[in-house]
Design a protein that fits this description.
Layout (H helix, E strand, L loop, with lengths): L16 E5 L3 E6 L4 E2 L7 E2 L10 E7 L3 H6 L11 E8 L9 H20 L3 E2 L7 H8 L5 E3 L3 E4 L1
C-alpha cells in the first residue's frame, strides 16, 4: 500500500503546514499520524505501512480568533466563516530559496478545499493576508514562517 496525500506537491515534499481556525480555537493539522513516538528525532511518526490513515488536529490556542484573522486579511467579512484554513510555509525547512514555486502548491491546496466545499454545498474563497505579523502572532508562528493565503469556508 502506497500512501500519499490528495493535494499535489512540488517534488513530493509537502512543505505546507495547514492551520484551521474555528469558533473554538486554532488547530494545526498533522496528516497521516499513526502514533506519537517520543524516541524518534521526529516525534510524529508517519509510515507507509498497511495501517489506516489517521490525521490529527493539534490545538494551538482556544478561543475565537476569526475576527483578528479577518482584520489581518484583505476581506473583513470572513470573520463569520465557520472555518478558516491558512497554509503556512516554514522557510527554514525548504531546500530551495525560491518561494514563488510554493505559491502554486498553496493554490493547489486551496483548489482542493474549494472543490470539496462545492461538493458539500459550501462556499469558499481565497483571501490574501495583508498583515503577516498579526497572523504570525495569532497562530504563534516563528519568524521564518510565511502564511501564504487564507481560505474561509462556510455557507
Amino acid at each position: 500500500v502506497e500512501r500519499h496525500r490528495t493535494v499535489p506537491s512540488s517534488s513530493c515534499t509537502y512543505p505546507l503546514v495547514i492551520y484551521a481556525i474555528t469558533s473554538t480555537g486554532i488547530f494545526r493539522y498533522f496528516p497521516h499520524i499513526l502514533h506519537l513516538n517520543p524516541y524518534s528525532d521526529n516525534p510524529y511518526f508517519s509510515s507507509n505501512w498497511k495501517f489506516p490513515v489517521i490525521s490529527f488536529l493539534f490545538p494551538i490556542r482556544f478561543g475565537d480568533y476569526r475576527e483578528e484573522i479577518a482584520h489581518a486579511s484583505s476581506k473583513i467579512n470572513i470573520k463569520t466563516a465557520p472555518l478558516i484554513l491558512i497554509p503556512v510555509l516554514p522557510l527554514s525547512s525548504l531546500y530551495s530559496p525560491f518561494t514563488w514555486a510554493w505559491y502554486y502548491e498553496a493554490g493547489a491546496s486551496a483548489y482542493n478545499v474549494m472543490l470539496e466545499s462545492t461538493i458539500l454545498d459550501l462556499h469558499s474563497d481565497i483571501v490574501i493576508p495583508t498583515d503577516l505579523t498579526s497572523i504570525k502572532s495569532i497562530l504563534r508562528l516563528i519568524d521564518d514562517s510565511l502564511p501564504i493565503i487564507i481560505i474561509p469556508v462556510g455557507r
